Amino acid sequence: MKNTRRCFLAIIVIILQFPFYTNGQSNSKIDLKLQSSSESRIVQIGAEAQINITLENQSSIEGTNIKVFINIPYFPPFVKFVSANPLKGSFDIATGLWTVPVVKPLETIKLVIKYIPMQYGVWYAEAEIYSSNENDSDSTPNNKVDMEDDFTRTCISMPIKVPTSTFGRQIILDDSKITNIVWKKDDQTIINQTSNTLQVTTIGSYGFSSPTFICPSQGCCPYIFELGSSPFCCESLEFGLSRVSNTASSNPTVLNIIGSNENMQDADVSSIVPNTNYANNEFMNPYAWTQNGILNVKRNYLKFDLSSIPQSAVIDSAYLSLYFGQKLIDLNPIFSGHTGENQLEIQRVLEDWSENTINWNNKPPTSTSNLLIVPKFTDLKQNYLNLKVTNLVSDMIKNGNFGFMIKHQVEVPYKITAFATSESINASIRPKLNVYYH
Ligand SMILES: [Ca+2]
Ligand SMILES: [Ca+2]
Ligand SMILES: [Ca+2]
């Protein structure tokens, strides 16, 4: 009985003292709100994009030590950072944080960020309150809920130049949260297209809507396919929803590998000469053709040195780039470039191999888990750039890196895909792998 009473008294004391401890601050809440806009929603190659982010204190009390996380992939090859000019506070590109010591009641302040997008497609910038000393009345910092008023999103579109009015590309919305998609072309709904991948074969302006994706206040940006020539050496086959995923680090470690003898191995294997090794060719080519009436199938094995990535790393994204192998055409003028229904599969290799000994007979097994399908060529001498191999690389880091195997999806005549290897004299056409991880 005595103990219970003491406990009861203690509770009363704590309740009575609470207002004195808090000095009135935590009882009143701030209300921070973020908004953003793009200076122009369509930006041509080489031009600067400008996004404006405003931070508004909608409450009657002062907000202190406010941090805003701004989610843009600042680093090449996606966008190049130019400048960040906050009206108040400071912006740190390494963390993506805009830090503001004080925002007065009903004050609105602005941050202008400029960057140059370096690839065609649609680019999103997102921002959210990351932390503040005071609690917010209607939103929670850093919870990535895009319905809240402390989250904002804006976008820019870089028109995609295509050489002819018919072509083959695809738009991939690589975000499982985006569902019930309605695709539109030139504002007309495309009937029976609800998957997150849209095949695009004619010029026009393409967009989507989804009840689970909140478009910027200025509207979602269109994927514009228009006639023109590209200053880029190489054209991408697919265009995604280009923003840093919520799981991505704001400051990833970057591993950029340009294939060489030191950091990668690559070789063909060929079914018609099953004991022959092709370690040192300057080209490799998935292939299905008949030679003297006998089917010859070729597959490619590529293994990059990923030993600097710890096994515990989270792979934010990984992109494989393969370049056209002109050398093969020079040596075999019967071919003029990629040929046939050459849809490719990129699979993960399950056991180790060596460039100098691999052949058709001893080739290691592969897994079809997370395999990447690459659509048919649209240009005879096309490069295959920035193939998104995030899941495959993630599996390699977890389970052991034995590289990629590339084959035609259907290995029947007549088809060939010509790639340059790491033995190419010209380093700019060697296979490349860019990995972003934390
Ligand atoms: Ca708020
Ligand atoms: Ca929030
Ligand atoms: Ca090689």
Count of DSSP H/I helices: 3
From the alpha-carbon coordinates, what is the Rg to the nearest angstrom? 27 Å
Ligands bound here?
calcium ion
Number of strands: 30
CATH architecture of the largest domain: Sandwich
Oligomer category: single chain
Backbone shape: elongated
For the sheet with most strands, the description reads: 8 strands, mixed
Number of domains: 2
Helices and strands: which structural class?
Answer: mainly beta
Specify the CATH class of the largest domain: Mainly Beta
CATH topology of the largest domain: Immunoglobulin-like
User: How many angstroms does the end-to-end distance come to?
Assistant: 57 Å
- Report the sheet-strand fraction: 35-45%
The percent range for helix content is under 10%
Catalogue the unreliable spans.
1-26
| Mean pLDDT level | 88
- The CATH homologous superfamily of the largest domain is termed ntegrin, alpha v. Chain A, domain 3
Q: What would you note in describing this structure?
A:
The strands form six sheets. Strands 3, 5, 6, 8, 9, 11, 14 and 17 form an eight-stranded mixed sheet that branches. Strands 19, 21, 22, 24, 25, 27 and 28 form a seven-stranded antiparallel sheet that branches. Strands 10-16-15-12-13 form a five-stranded mixed sheet, with no helix packed on it. It is built from three helices and 30 strands. 8% of the residues lie in helices and 42% in strands. By secondary structure, it is mainly beta. The N and C termini lie far apart (57 Å). Bound molecules: calcium ion (CA) (3 copies).
